[in-house]
TrEMBL record:
GO molecular function: tetrapyrrole binding
Pfam families, sorted: GUN4
Gene3D superfamilies linked: 1.25.40.620, Gun4-like
Keyword annotations: Signal
InterPro entries assigned to the protein according to its UniProt record, in alphabetical order: GUN4-like, GUN4-like_sf
Top-level lineage group: Eukaryota
Residue ranges annotated for the GUN4-like domain, each copy included: 74-220
Protein name: GUN4-like domain-containing protein
Signal peptide: 1-22
CDD domains reported for this sequence: GUN4
Species the sequence originates in: Pseudictyota dubia
SUPFAM superfamilies, A to Z: GUN4-like
Entry annotated with the keyword DNA damage: no
Length: 233
């Protein structure tokens, strides 16, 4: 996974800051924001170095200027700062993996000894957590990625999974044969906000059928727009 050292370092600094107990709640939040901002700067610089783009010539949109939120509600104590940091720094493959693993934990699948979610378990995923995940994907993709975007595409496809996959770029062609893209081994998906079609991420496996994604896209949290509300400080 790319750029884990800057992220891990920032998280360690934040923990050291809280352990000392010398900060007021207001000062502590400020300290966490400064640490996270440093993380974004380090990871962005690493990303540009890896891509061969000189920092002085990088476009402003390539630098994660957005403030990473530190109030990220979870009904089960899940820490979403890593997800926010990955998304803010363009680590979309890592953010996608984090999201998938989070759902496995939230649905209770991990406790059951499985590394995948049964469609019948989706209803166990707390709305609070799904809303937090969705706000982060939406925020750092400019509204291009997220389950609510996929829900819109699903509706446009009239529930036809094949049409849905074409709309969000989950298919490719081998010669004249259309097939689903692969994410195992060398992933064929597009982890780039500018290049990927709307709704391309996050990914949901359909190896065991389409019931899982149908349940995710019809979760009660999407019945209204309350998920968009930012939590108060």
């Amino acid at each position: 996974m790319r750029f884990l050292f800057p992220i891990a370092s920032a998280m360690a600094l934040a923990l050291l800051a809280t352990d000392a107990g010398a900060f007021s709640p207001t000062a502590l939040v400020g300290q966490q924001r400064r640490v996270i901002k440093q993380t974004v700067a380090l990871a962005t610089e690493a990303a540009m170095a890896e891509s061969g783009v000189p920092p002085e010539t990088a476009d402003a949109t390539d630098v994660a200027e957005a403030v990473i939120p530190t109030i990220l509600p979870s009904d089960v104590g899940m820490d979403y700062i890593p997800l926010a940091t990955m998304l803010a720094t363009g680590q979309l493959a890592e953010a996608d993996e984090f999201t998938r693993n989070a759902l496995i934990t939230l649905a209770g699948s991990k406790d059951a000894g499985r590394n995948f979610v049964y469609w019948t378990e989706v209803k166990k995923i707390p709305s609070t957590d799904l809303a937090t995940i969705e706000r982060l994907w939406s925020k750092f993709s400019g509204g291009k990625f997220g389950y609510t975007v996929q829900k819109k595409k699903w509706k446009q496809s009239k529930g036809d999974f094949e049409v849905f996959c074409r709309k969000i770029g989950w298919t490719t062609t081998d010669g004249e044969v259309e097939r689903k893209k692969r994410w195992f081994g060398a992933s064929e998906f597009t982890y780039d906000v500018k290049k990927a079609p709307e709704g391309h991420l996050p990914l949901t496996s359909a190896l065991r059928g389409t019931s899982l994604i149908k349940e995710l896209l019809t979760h009660p949290v999407w019945e209204n727009d309350d998920w968009k509300k930012e939590p108060e400080n």
